[in-house]
Amino acid sequence: MPVQGEPDRELPGDIELRSGQQPRGAMYGRVPAVAEETAGGGVAVNYPQRVELPVLRGQLVSGMSITLLEVSILVWAPGQAAVDARAALVGDLDVGDGSELRFTSAKMQIEHLDSLAHKGPLGPYRYPQSSEPYLNVTWSVDGVPESTQKWSEAGLEVTYSFDSLISAPDGFGFQLSFSPTVIVVTSKPITFDAWVSSWLLPLRQLVSLATGKEERITYFDLELAGEGRDFDDQQSSLRELAGIPDFELPRSFRTLQVYASGITQEPFASQYKDVQSRPAAFHVGRDEVSLLQLLKGWQEASTEHHPLLETYGAFIGDRRQHPRLKYLLLIQALEGLHGFETRADWKARVDQHLDRRAAVLSASALSYLPSADGRFLKENLGKRPLSSLDAALNYCLSTLPIDQKGALGATQLVRGVVEDKRADSVLAALRVVRNDLAHGNRGYDARELHKAGEILERVTRAHMLRVLGCSSAVIERFLGNPSQ
To answer: Which residues contact 227 (CB under 8 A, 6 or more apart)?
Structure first.
């Protein structure tokens, strides 16, 4: 631990790395504390004291290194401190002083990531038929190389593949399983924050978008960049330990596993029934979908503060939303999408409206009005043209390969508003419900809101797929298959 005016101080302690939780621990012994001079000229140490550190390094009893990021230390008594951190990086390699950490690649796994695969890693298999003696033939299965997909461009490579786990034959049983992963490699090392915000979280949201469910991060590790670090000696030691001096060390020897809130670190093996339970809106390798381009599309939309990303993108697949809240959020997302994609037309309309407004207010005929009337007209003649939620919803519904107005019109929510003569169309009914909910005019049955919200969510998901670069064929298939 850094101590002002002294070399780093080594302290004993404990650390808890729990699934899906931020690292927490404790330190004991000569925990640094700041002393203050008292009024009488003495020195006193007041507790508790809090210390914030960007990095805290340590070594586990297993010999592995651990690096805590964004650390908060609460010294609550002499020789006693509680430790909280944003994340813990655990691995075989020493990270040096931990300053300016950069990473060249990341391996990630998201729950139901295998649902995006068009083909699994196993193909045709051979086993005894009922008429054959089952111990006199070869049991075999072929691998499917096409299950591995790669995309690359200058300085970037994304690989979608399956890690394998093979049990050692023991004369009585044999097991082979596969686990889906995505590995991103960049030629320019980037920070921990950049990996999380630009790759890990977008991948999680992409898988959630494909399955329509909120998926968890089940594995995340980072490959440490070697610039300015004594990696040669460390890697030579690892090669010597492995007993194969000329062997190229696998990536796992150069990586640090990440433990943090929202990361379970519980990787899973694919099973057919689980893949079937989560049909995906698109598949890599079949739909001409580049996972790299989808991830970059997410990054670009995030940089642009795309309203669809910052509304619906923030809660994709979250089934905990109350139907009222979900309805309002989806309407807001679609209204924002329309405004974002038609902003050039809207600017032209505003400019035209302002010119017309200025011409009207400067017309000679107005000079005959009493000054109070002229002032009233100037203050109340709006500086923006009229706009309507109906137009925004019509844009979002009519620009999809399959129009969902009919499905929305069949819902009890819309039918009830139209039958009450409070609206004369599907779009007007959706607007009336939104206004009632937003302004507290009246409430609606949660089940009716849920049914309409499910359709609106499919519309929003379809537009999200379009914005990120999926083809019309993918979107049409998605809208035509209610199970997705």
So the answer is: 102, 189
